[in-house]
């Protein structure tokens, strides 16, 4: 009887040791050692994801070195890597045309503007494509640069935070805290822009390119858009365009995506047009970031509204 009792105690001791092993810190950490692999399709999303995830995500931005954001397509090896990732956060609003010819599981592709469709704007261009045997048909193309409206950008960042928290709750506190800080900064700068432009709601400007739709709507900017790249010279036809616009609306300012040629800038000044640079932040800025560029954009607009701080 004594031998049976000793044997039973031994079995219980072994079982108890096994149960204790399940609750050791080493075992628990093994469950959450996987660093989430996160892909993003735009620089602003890269910035938001980095601010939110920090060292708790493996962040990848394959378009970073591309010279063209409109014609970029992922390489086969990149697509394969995307398929193995946890999330592929996209801008939506028609920005990622490469997705139409790329097969990536819908379960990991997260459209950060999916629930903002009522706030998406048309670009003014037409887009032709086809579905299977239905033949080609035409859509009004959406404007894509949603991140120039910082309220929309804030909501896109929130989508990133929510998905990271949902799938990796062990880092919830970090993700929530980081997003809270980011969100407060976006809201503050958004308010700052709105306060600035509210000082003159009748002001009209010329936009060098039709890429500022969300910026215009969010901050009550009015004007006309041309199709001028910063490296364009002010030839006879373009000078005629400026003369026409000045007579029609008495424009005094022109917003560029980057600094125009110095000769173009000088000739425009002679015609009464001051050049202002508002960076649309298509790509990762060198030695800068999203907020620094938006602050620089604010300072440029302050010249138009004659505000000094």
UniProtKB/TrEMBL annotation:
Keywords: Lipoprotein, Signal, Transport
InterPro entries, A to Z: Bact_metal-bind_prot9, ZnuA-like
GO molecular function: metal ion binding
One GO BP: metal ion transport
Coiled-coil ranges per UniProt: none
Family from the record: Belongs to the bacterial solute-binding protein 9 family.
Name of this chain's protein: Adhesion lipoprotein
Species name: Formosa agariphila (strain DSM 15362 / KCTC 12365 / LMG 23005 / KMM 3901 / M-2Alg 35-1)
């Amino acid at each position: 009887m004594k031998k049976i009792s000793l044997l039973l105690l031994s079995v219980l001791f072994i079982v108890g040791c096994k149960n204790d092993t399940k609750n050791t810190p080493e075992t628990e950490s093994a469950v959450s050692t996987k660093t989430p692999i996160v892909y993003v399709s735009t620089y602003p999303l890269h910035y938001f994801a980095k601010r939110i995830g920090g060292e708790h995500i493996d962040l990848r931005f394959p378009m970073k070195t591309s010279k063209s954001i409109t014609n970029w397509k992922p390489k086969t090896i990149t697509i394969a890597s995307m398929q193995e990732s946890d999330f592929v956060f996209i801008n939506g609003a028609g920005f990622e045309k490469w997705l139409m010819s790329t097969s990536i599981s819908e379960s990991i592709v997260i459209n950060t503007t999916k629930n903002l469709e009522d706030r998406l704007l048309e670009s003014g261009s037409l887009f032709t494509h086809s579905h299977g045997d239905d033949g080609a048909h035409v859509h009004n193309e959406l404007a894509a640069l949603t991140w120039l409206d910082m309220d929309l950008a804030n909501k896109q960042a929130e989508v990133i935070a929510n998905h990271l928290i949902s799938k990796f709750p062990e880092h919830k506190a970090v993700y929530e805290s980081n997003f809270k800080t980011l969100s407060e900064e976006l809201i503050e700068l958004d308010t700052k822009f709105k306060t600035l432009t509210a000082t003159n709601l009748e002001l009209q400007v010329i936009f060098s390119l039709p890429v500022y739709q969300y910026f215009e709507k969010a901050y009550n900017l009015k004007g006309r858009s041309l199709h001028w790249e910063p490296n364009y010279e002010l030839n006879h036809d373009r000078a005629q365009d400026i003369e026409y616009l000045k007579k029609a609306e008495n424009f005094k300012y022109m917003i560029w995506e980057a600094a125009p040629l110095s000769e173009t800038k000088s000739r425009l000044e002679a015609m009464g047009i001051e050049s202002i640079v508002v960076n649309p932040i298509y790509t990762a800025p060198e030695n800068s970031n999203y907020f620094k560029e938006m602050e620089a954009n604010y300072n440029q607009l302050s010249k138009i509204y004659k505000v000094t701080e």
